[in-house]
Amino acid sequence: MKNQHLQKLAKLDMAQAPSPLTFTVRRNPPELIVPAKPTPRELKPLSDIDDQEGFRFHLRVIHIYPQNPKMENKNPASVIREALAKVLVFYYPFAGRLKEGPGRKLTVDCSGQGVLFIEAEADVTLKQFGAEIRPPFPCKDEFLYNVPGSDGILDSPLLLIQVTRLLCGGFILVVRLNHTMCDAFGYAQFMTALSEMAKGASAPTTLPVWQRELLCARDPPRVTCTHREYDEVPDNNGTILAPDDIEHRSFFFGPTQVSAIRRFVPSNLKRCSTFEVLTACLWRCRTIALQPNPEDEMRMIVIVNARSKFSPPIPVGYYGNVVAHSAAISKARDLCNKPLGHALELVMRAKTEVTKEYMKSVADLMVIRGRPGFTNVGFIVSDVTRNGFLGLDFGWGKAVYGGPDFRVSSSFTRYTNQSGESGILVPIWLSGIAMKRFIKELNNLLAPGNKDHLIPEHLTTLSKL
């Protein structure tokens, strides 16, 4: 009886693919929002961390808000539109356009042309999305219209925002941003400023700081660290998914699930963080699901916020990219056959390798090698649980969901389920058949009597060698 109770507590909590849901979204024409006051007309170079190939894309972030009876006479689109014009006075580079110079160097032309904004309404309620508002979301593209000609990296708007009001009085805010301008930390800073202005503040609590020269290459540039995250490697394991064979699910890990996984942490690694142990677990389960050749190298890329690595520290208010993509690498044979501690140790080591010198070495590598992109083969994870997305309040209270929507990486986000339990939500993208194996392995891991991971059937012969 006790085991049955534990099984219920630690069972895998995942979001299934959404049921068909039909609704209509009516949009106003896209408009350019310019700063509410005149701003400096100048050229502002990005850092050599900002303008690498791996950040030259548009990242989408979804924020979902329920009804607030006290705000029923307010239009969230109007409130956010007005606040956006005000916040752009402080964050005026976002109203500019990117230009590319010699050596592929990117510079922001602070032209004041503005950011794109769309007001919309949908004949659907939050309740129709299900008992829990979490990815995958049905018809999510309806909540962010890709304005023709807006998704380029150069000479294109750096922000696209759509606010969609729902029948229930709630709304969905989706932001698409050019990643060269900021990382998740910087984005959260900008959005916090936007929320403060929406509630009547005359200036952000944290004023923005540019100073991108802090993360520019040295003279002369010199690569002093090993950067496996920029290796060019073939995709032997189906990491790059075909568009017609992608299954997306999100998995919730509350205290019970985390405790069940921590049973497998060796005593010498007990001080590991929840992010580290979940990353190691998911990397291992994902590898088993992919059924790679036992001798293949399996990669895990962990996105590390390096702000705390600098002394003197990066200034408060700096909103540029201060992240590294540190790589952990293991043979598939070892990842699948060895205890979880093997993967966990590699994850922890990858995080600790990121130092101030490491970041300087990355900046120098960009200049020397022409700003290469990251290896797009492997499992990429990031931790945005501390960025406060759920706490962003535009006057309607806290969000019920807030997080990036980007299938190349799995962003760990803070989430509260329908039982009021706080935990971590992790999106996973795999082929259909690999997803089934992934879920089976995770369920096996959470099973109460499991003393260690079962070795996958296709590797049992290897374990006997």
What's a concise summary of this model?
Pfam families: Transferase. This protein is an alpha+beta fold and 465 residues long.
Describe the overall structure.
The protein is α+β, with helices and mostly antiparallel strands. The protein is built from ten helices and 17 strands. The protein has helices at 2-9, 76-90, 184-198, 255-262, 274-290, 332-337, 340-352, 356-369, 432-446, 460-463; strands at residues 13-15, 25-27, 31-33, 43-45, 58-65, 97-100, 106-109, 115-122, 159-166, 171-178, 247-253, 297-305, 323-331, 379-383, 401-405, 410-416, 422-430. Strands 1-11-17-16-14-12-13 form a seven-stranded mixed β-sheet. α5 (274-290) crosses α7 (340-352) and α5 (274-290) crosses α9. Mean pLDDT is 91; it is low at 1-8 and 453-465.
Distance between the termini: 39 Å
Poorly predicted runs:
1-8, 453-465
What is the succession of H and E elements?
Answer: HEEEEEHEEEEEHEHHEEHHHEEEEHH
Helix count, per DSSP?
A: 10
Oligomeric state of the chains?
single chain
Largest sheet: 7 strands, mixed
Gyration radius, to the nearest Å? 23 Å
CATH architectural type of the largest domain: 2-Layer Sandwich
Number of domains: 2
Mean pLDDT metric: 91
The proportion of strand residues reads: 15-25%
Instruction: From the 3D structure, determine the CATH topology of the largest domain.
Output: Chloramphenicol Acetyltransferase
- CATH class of the largest domain, named Alpha Beta
- Structural class estimated from helices and strands: alpha+beta
Overall number of strands: 17
